[in-house]
Specification:
Layout (H helix, E strand, L loop, with lengths): L3 E9 L4 E9 L2 E6 L9 E4 L4 E4 L1 E3 L7 E2 L2 E2 L4 H10 L2 E9 L6 H12 L6 E7 L5 H14 L3 E5 L10 H13 L3 E5 L3 H13 L6 H5 L3 H18 L3 E3 L5 H13 L3 E5 L1 H5 L24 H12 L5 E2 L39 H11 L5 H15 L17 E11 L18 E11 L2 E5 L2 E2 L29 H4 L2
Parallel strand pairs: 1-4, 1-5, 6-9, 9-10, 10-11, 11-12, 12-13, 13-14, 14-15
Antiparallel strand pairs: 1-2, 2-3, 5-16, 7-8, 16-17, 17-18, 18-19
This protein binds dihydropyrimidine-2,4(1H,3H)-dione (DUC) and zinc ion (ZN) (2 copies).
Length: 487
């Protein structure tokens, strides 16, 4: 591979903002400097007028995931191509423990599937449903020898994904002691199941009842329970897809207490609200995701938490299911819930619209600084999931994963424009300002002017380390100057 020089860009990291050139070779950043001179054998890319950001790190995506009785409709090929199109160069997907696949077998099976397809680098969390002594031994092995240092557990979906509190506690205790992270889906699954059955019995079958049977109070209750289990286990905990004030209240107060609580939200909770559920129209199935969209007041609390670092990550929960088509031999997807909302697979796409939608509503509309945008979409997810400083920043020695970003480019999003393999986007017709004009992965330009040139199989599995602890704001070492510390 030849060396490449990115010339004249404005480098933005989570902490810095300065004009410089970046020389990349062998897949990593070699030198950053002003006016770097190179010979004719070096490819030069002119980034004048563009921001140069670290490649996006999306730590919550579902590609080819079997969920319930269907499968997400992006393959590792289409999903990673879509990610590159949208400025994301690293994803963390899921391997699923089943009756027949132990955690280690699930990792191996998912790698065999993903490796020949991925166009960007990837890693895996393992979804753990059942915990016994062998599971715990496998989990320890996965952390020490496979570079899989995070595990997802569900408090929702009884009989399908839900783990009981003792199982969650056992995992927290061991994984926390070993330096890893439990990512938790916090909703009270058994009460939600009761509400679903009651709604159906009353003849309430349309998609909006998905939202009405998953009230925010049950996200808050489960979040509180998860925090207390983590506190008892003396372990860090990470809440996925936080959507509500109810959940945030517990997260904020736990962080004030010094408990190691971290959390993500997703762009759809910031961009859409529960007004979409105002009718019985089946098209609303496009917005059947879990948790459901919440109120404008909840959105205000999400923005507040992003501002005060009570939310540290914005990931997509890219969980695509076609409205009408089937996929990979599975029959129709969202349509299977016509007449019974509980059969609509839960999820929406977002892998390639994360950076652009957030840049527009966050940076362009004055809610996030450029540095904070990078921190939320790249640096902190890399730190929390053991990928930093290889990923998540622009520094000598880090992987040469970059996005050249045109902050003045305005684009109207349509599904036809996007690379993902799904028949709709929730962002249809939305105009955004700020767009990636090139994505560089491992020193190679993999997307330029909307054309993705990434080869399937050119991405790598990333063995991850322990999480890089960021102190919650309550815990300060003796003698530490808090005013200098809290940002
Ligand atoms: N939770 C997720 O994180 N993804 C898809 C569905 C769900 O409930
Ligand atoms: Zn979830
Ligand atoms: Zn998810």
């Amino acid at each position: 591979m030849t060396a490449t020089l990115i010339r004249n860009g404005r480098i933005i990291t989570a902490t810095d903002d300065y004009p410089a050139d970046i020389l990349m070779d062998g897949g990593v950043i070699r030198t950053i400097g002003i006016g770097i001179e190179v010979g004719p054998d070096v490819t030069v890319v002119d980034a004048r007028g563009l921001y140069v950001l670290p490649g996006g790190v999306d730590t919550h995506v579902h590609l080819e995931n079997v969920i319930g009785t269907t499968i997400t409709c992006d393959t590792f090929e289409s999903g990673t191509r879509a990610a590159a199109f949208g400025g994301t160069t690293t994803i963390v997907d899921f391997a699923l423990q089943t009756q027949t696949d132990s955690p280690l077998a699930a990792i191996a099976r998912t790698q065999r599937n993903a490796d020949p397809q991925v166009a960007i680098d990837y890693s895996l969390h393992v979804i753990i449903k059942q915990v016994d002594a062998q599971t715990l031994a496998d989990v320890r092995y996965a952390m020490r020898h496979e570079g899989v240092t995070s595990f997802k557990m569900f408090m929702a979906y009884p009989g399908v994904m839900m783990a009981d509190d003792a199982a969650i506690f056992r995992m927290l205790r061991q994984v926390g002691a070993d330096g890893g992270m439990i990512a938790l889906h916090a909703e009270n699954g058994t009460v939600i199941e009761l509400l679903i059955q009651e709604a159906l019995a009353a003849g309430h079958t349309s998609p909006r009842y998905h939202a009405m049977t998953r009230p925010a109070i049950l996200e808050g209750e489960a979040t509180h329970r998860g925090i207390r289990l983590a506190e008892l286990a003396d372990a860090p905990i990470y809440f996925v897809h936080v959507s509500s004030e109810q959940a945030l209240r517990h997260i904020v107060s736990a962080r004030d207490e010094g408990i190691r609580v971290f959390a993500e939200t997703c762009p759809h909770y910031l961009l859409f609200d529960d007004s979409v559920y105002a009718s019985d129209d089946f098209e609303i199935a496009k917005y059947v995701m879990t948790p459901p969209l919440r109120t404008p007041r909840d959105q205000q609390h999400l923005w507040r938490a992003l501002r005060f670092d009570d939310l540290q990550v914005i990931a997509t929960d890219h969980c695509p299911f076609c409205m009408r088509e089937g996929h990979l031999g599975y029959r129709q997807q969202k349509m299977r819930g016509l007449g019974d909302f509980s059969q609509i697979p839960n999820g929406a796409p977002g892998i390639e619209t994360r950076m652009v939608s957030l840049f527009d509503i966050g940076v362009m509309q004055g809610r996030l600084s450029l540095n904070r945008f990078v921190q939320l979409t790249s640096t902190t997810p890399a730190k929390l999931f053991g990928l930093f400083p290889r990923k998540g920043t622009i520094a000598p020695g880090s992987d040469a994963d970059l996005v050249l970003w045109d902050a003045g480019k305005t684009v109207t999003i349509t599904n036809a424009l996007l690379q993902h393999h799904i028949d709709y986007t929730p962002y249809e017709g939305k105009t955004v300002t700020g767009w990636p004009v090139a994505t560089v992965k491992g020193g190679r330009v993999v997307m330029r002017d909307g054309v993705v040139q990434a080869e399937p199989g050119s991405g790598q599995f990333l063995a991850r380390g322990p999480y890089d602890m960021i102190r919650p704001r309550g815990v300060l070492p003796d003698g530490f100057d808090a005013s200098a510390f809290i940002v």
